[in-house]
Amino acid sequence: MALSRCGMAAVLPLVPRRLTATAAAGAQPPGSVVRVPWALRLRLQRGAQRRRRGKEAAAVPRGTKLLLRSRRPELSQPRWQTVGRWEQPQLVSAGWKHRKAYGDYFQLEPSQEAAPALQAASPEAEKRPSFAEMGLQPPLLVGLEGLSIDRPTAVQRLAIPALRRGRSALCAAETGSGKTLAYLLPLLDRLLARPEEPAVEAAGPASPRGLVVLPSRELAAQVGAVAVALGRPAGLQVRGLTGGGAAGGLRRQLRAPPPGPAVLLGTPGALREALRRRFLALERLRWIVLDEADALMDDESFMKPLEEILAHAPLAAGAPGPAGPGEARTQVVVVGATFPVGLSQTLGKFTDVGHFVTLGTQSLHHLPPHVQQKFMRLKGQDKLPELLHLLKEHPASGGAVLIFCKNASTVNWLGYILDDHKIKHLRLQGQMSAAARASIFVSFQKGDVSVLVCTDLASRGLDTSSVQLVVNYDFPGTLQDYLHRAGRVGRVGSKVPGAVVSFVTHRWDVDLVRKIETAARKRTGLPGMDSSINRPPPKGG
Question: Is residue 47 part of a domain?
């Protein structure tokens, strides 16, 4: 029995995958139906959603400030638009693994002018104490005046009171936020508050009361210069120990009036060698700092020397916290913008990590909101022309430029190309001698040459306040590496926030870019970065 058109209309609501023939075409008999495949129906719905979003984007006034600017305007995100925690935003990089995506790009626009480290989160934060009001010793205030520093940053306001009380801590803050002063000021203050102990024999090993362990010679020299400037008014002896090699070299670096340097800064290899040769003793150590902890613990060549150093320090003599009368103890401070996953396990072999206090800023693991960041999907063969275009368009007065490559061979190859194009530059990579590396970075910091081609050796901790453009010629391998590279611009002390340009060439690069874009659109921290800080330490070490 044939159904009438009215009867068919009554049946249709119960069969959502069917459409009447007259709705599709006029050629079928009145009682016929057309079955629409489910996949086609979903594709049509998605197309309608894209068209609707495109109309909404087109309706945004031209003067609207953007959070993300896309080559395709319909994918741009206004600053006022929010994306829910569980909502999946439409990403520019969603299709970047397809060959047709070459040439596409998007740009994260600055959402604030000042660096988060200098911006107060609330009106109450503006009333927080100055360096003098924190109770620091007068000689340290004199040293700060010599460094032309008068305003504490967010991490300094957070860390100085806690570390002055003798607390062992994990101190985590975004790159370029002033972490060096955050730990040097309170720890030097503790040395000044406790008078120098009786001198040991002049012929004995150097016995510092403070030790800072750093992953590179360049960073040790930089932090050492700050420590010397702070300690000079107080008469504190500061020495550096890097790449000693022969016994004579180690002895010369440790040479200081008895009882030796009050504060010692060094790399793991040099410190271990000095301990083995008995040029160095840590029995009098009051505090130890592990700076750039992720670089120290992610590098296999650093792990064994670091564990040997920790084994010599009297870490287990007392629990973290205010020391009792005559208590021999060592305060441990671990510093970094990111922390390795195995941090608790490594420290747990030598001290009770459960008593550590965690000091972290609100902007930790977030993309720098004051720095412009551009991501370009390119073929490998197009990277060099794009880089040359950027360098030639960059004005001479536009500040220094850092170009990051994945390895030393790429640094050298790219350097030869820049030589051919008469672009003056410097190269910095780990295969160079210690003396050459030190000379190169000092020359770059002084502004003798404004372009530095380098590996990730220059991405950790080094002061690059003169840098205004970072180019990721090779995209970083991890999100942590991206944060460290991006942190070379927009630092405390920089005149302008600067910009970061990243070339995205491989399919695995796209996976990281999608995570970065999602975090930017949702205004959240980068994923997978908090576990090493918030994870409970293992019981029993």
Answer: no
Q: Where are the beta strands (DSSP E) in 173-279?
A: 210-213, 238-241, 263-266
* Torsion over CA: 224, 435, 307, 250 (sign): negative
Distance CA 59, CA 81 (A): 14
Confidence category of residue 216, pLDDT binned at 50, 70, 90: confident
pLDDT digits (tens, 9 = 90+) for 414-433: 999 999 999 999 999 988 88
Please state, as a whole number, how many other Cβ atoms lie within 10 Å of the Cβ of residue 354: 14
Q: How far apart are CA 19 and CA 43, in angstroms?
A: 16
- Residue 206 is classified by DSSP as B
Whether the pLDDT of residue 9 is over 80: the answer is no
| Enclosing domain of residue 403 | 67-115+367-522
Q: Tell me whether strands 66-70 and 105-108 are parallel, antiparallel or unpaired.
A: antiparallel
- Cα–Cα dist 524/541, whole Å: 33
pTM of the predicted model, to two decimals? Answer: 0.79
pLDDT for 410 equals 96
**pLDDT tens digits, residue range 57-105?**
555 566 789 999 999 999 999 999 989 888 889 999 999 999 999 999 9
- Rounded to an integer, what distance in angstroms lies between the CA atom of residue 228 and that of residue 263? 9
* Both structure tokens of 2: 């044939």
**Whether residues 229 and 165 fall in one domain:** yes
Structural domain tally of the chain? 2
Mean of pLDDT over the chain: 83
Pairing outcome for strands 400-404 and 210-213 = unpaired
Q: Is residue 396 part of a domain?
A: yes
Same domain, 409 and 501: yes
pLDDT at site 341: 73
Q: Which helix H or strand E contains 386, and what residues bound it?
A: helix 383-393
Where is 467: in which H helix or E strand? strand 467-472
**Backbone Cα Rg of the chain:** 29
SS3 18: strand
- Kindly state whether residues 149 and 285 are assigned to the same domain: yes
Contact 156, 183 (CB under 8 A): no
Distance (Å, whole) CA 456 – CA 485: 8
Separation CA 59–CA 55 (nearest Å): 6
- DSSP string across 248-282: HHHHHHH--STT--SEEEE-HHHHHHHHHTTSB--
Residues 6+ apart with CB under 8 A from 313: 211, 282, 285, 288, 330, 350
Please indicate, yes or no, if residue 92 is contained in any of the structural domains.
yes
Q: How confident is the model at residue 256 (pLDDT cuts 50, 70, 90)?
A: low
> For the segment 305-356, what is each residue's pLDDT rounded down to a tens digit?
999 999 999 886 444 444 444 445 789 999 988 887 778 888 888 888 888 9
Return d(Cα 328, Cα 330) in angstroms, integer: 7
CA 509 to CA 474: how far, in whole Å?
9
Give the residue from 203, 215, 168 showing the smallest Cα distance to 281. 203
Nearest to 484 by CA among 257, 179, 261, 206: 179
Tracing tokens 């959402």 back to the chain, one arrives at 111
Looking at the fold, whether 191 and 97 belong to one and the same domain comes out as: no
Extended strands (E) in 142-255: 169-172, 210-213, 238-241
